[in-house]
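Structure first, sequence second, as always.
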């Protein structure tokens, strides 16, 4: 919506109007008009695909700065496992974990610890068998947004467990309050985000509904700040408490790998996610029990806020699991709180953004007009007109946002026929 936090921002002064971003947008939220790209923020899911596609770096991202820490007495960093992967030259992950104390954080909580708990919870859930399959993971907010706006029939397949980030924020607050005796207002909990989708979810999306998170800082910004810190000066205060099970969630297939003897599927990269959602929508994957989806290539290791190559980061995570944590067991190896503690306190709400009109008779009339216009268009989906497909152009025409003359293919043939 217009009043929501925008984690993706278009810089018109740098835009070349090349249509790369428009072609890569999975929700058809982008149009190119008068040589500049514009985004419909109602449809934007902040997946970051346009950021990767833009050759002129005209698409930027927004997140909190370190100044936000000044508003709280006690600062908590929620550290995702991908943060370890940003330092492939450091073989002692405890150094990475504790280095955050040197840049203003009083307490560091591994998001993978929450993933550990959720892995145990999912195992129990499938053992009991009281689930609607295929169950769809909610670990990626961009994929969740995509489902709630474009594939709404799959809403009830979304698991009702808290995403690991929200559970981690909840667990961290509980620990800090018990440790310090401080009130919630004095405790700031900040996520080190690998992607703009999670920033948006925290600032104004579904993640903001719990109130446990106070902000999100890009992983790249934290790495930059750490470059000013001599790693030799890091004092080891905290040890790694997460297990291989939770660390695995940072790569595609990691969450699903913790569910043995379950028919599972993992897809990463927004184009592949869309392909899987279409098959799920058509009922073609009824033989699958669990579906794990990541908008970023490779999983969270491929987020646009990371500084290390996706494949190098993925290799680092696998190495960490294999060598450093191979003999480590989950330190919270049992579910010791009521199941409701791990469940979302709201219902997933769909948003209807793709109807031509709220009134059904008007929508049907406009749909007929779209089909009529579409018959006149070449159906080449070339994007030269500034709309991603010929159908999108037809819809834009019906909505008064474009004209038939924008189709350069038809104009070319019309002009040649006149010449003949």
């Amino acid at each position: 919506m217009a009043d929501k936090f925008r984690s993706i921002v278009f810089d018109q002064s740098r835009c070349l109007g090349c249509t790369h971003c428009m072609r890569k947008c999975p929700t058809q939220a982008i149009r190119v008009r008068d040589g500049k790209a514009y985004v419909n923020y109602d449809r934007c899911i902040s997946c970051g695909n346009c950021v990767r596609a833009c050759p002129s770096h005209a698409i930027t991202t927004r997140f909190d700065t370190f100044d936000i820490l000044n508003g709280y007495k006690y600062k908590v960093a929620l550290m995702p496992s991908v943060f370890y992967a940003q330092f492939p030259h450091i073989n002692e992950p405890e150094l990475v974990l504790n280095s955050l104390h040197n840049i203003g954080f009083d307490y560091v909580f591994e998001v993978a610890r929450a993933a550990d708990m959720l892995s145990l919870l999912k195992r129990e859930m499938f053992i009991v068998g009281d689930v609607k399959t295929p169950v769809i993971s909610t670990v990626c907010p961009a994929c969740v947004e995509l489902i709630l706006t474009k594939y709404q029939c799959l809403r009830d397949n979304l698991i009702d467990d808290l995403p690991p980030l929200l559970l981690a924020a909840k667990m961290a607050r509980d620990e800090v309050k018990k440790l310090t005796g401080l009130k919630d207002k004095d405790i700031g909990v900040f996520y080190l985000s690998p992607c703009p989708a999670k920033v948006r979810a925290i600032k104004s999306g579904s993640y903001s509904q719990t109130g446990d998170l106070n902000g999100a800082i890009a992983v790249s910004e934290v790495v930059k700040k750490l470059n000013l810190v001599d790693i030799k000066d890091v004092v080891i205060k905290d040890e790694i408490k997460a297990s291989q099970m939770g660390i695995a969630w940072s790569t595609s297939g990691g969450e699903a790998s913790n569910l043995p003897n379950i028919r599972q599927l993992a897809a990463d990269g927004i184009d592949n996610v869309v392909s899987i959602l279409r098959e799920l929508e058509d009922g073609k994957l009824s033989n699958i029990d669990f579906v794990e989806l990541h908008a970023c290539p490779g999983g969270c290791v491929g987020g646009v806020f990371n500084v290390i190559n996706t494949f190098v980061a993925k290799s680092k995570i696998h190495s960490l699991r294999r060598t450093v944590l191979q003999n480590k067991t989950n330190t919270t190896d049992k579910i010791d709180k009521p199941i409701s503690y791990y469940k979302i306190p709201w219902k997933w709400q769909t948003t209807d953004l793709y109807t031509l009109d709220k009134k059904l008779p008007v929508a049907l009339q406009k749909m007929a007009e779209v089909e009529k216009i579409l018959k006149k268009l070449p159906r080449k989906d070339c994007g030269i007109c500034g709309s991603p497909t010929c159908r999108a152009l037809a819809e834009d025409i019906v909505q008064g946002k474009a004209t038939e003359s924008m189709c350069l293919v038809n104009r070319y043939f019309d002009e040649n026929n006149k010449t003949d």
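Margin note: The chain has a mean pLDDT of 91.
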